[in-house]
Amino acid sequence: MKKLNRSSALLIVIPLLTHSCDSKNETVNQGREAVKEVITQPFNALNSAKESVRQSEDKQKAALQEADKEIK
Questions:
Q1: How many CA atoms lie within 13 A of 56 on its CB side?
Q2: Structure pTM?
């Protein structure tokens, strides 16, 4: 009877331990994704700002060229 109880206990404990490890891995993966997002966010903002400046410069160039055409 004791052997059956030990076996039963092992069958219950092993999946719990495995689930605990999976849960820990998931938490680690979520943490990595959060860190990745925090690190890349300023670079994405910088790239967006550069693109915005480039578009603004293009519009200003076009306006200057149009004004030069009207003057001539």
A1: 6
A2: 0.52
The pLDDT profile of the chain, 72 residues, written as one tens digit per residue, is: 445 566 666 566 666 666 666 677 888 889 999 999 999 999 999 999 999 999 999 999 999 999 888 887
Residue type, 31: G
d(CA 64, CA 59): 9
Taking CA atoms, 39 is separated from 31, 43, 45, 47, 50, in Å, by 12, 8, 11, 14, 18
Residue written as token pair 């966010």: 41
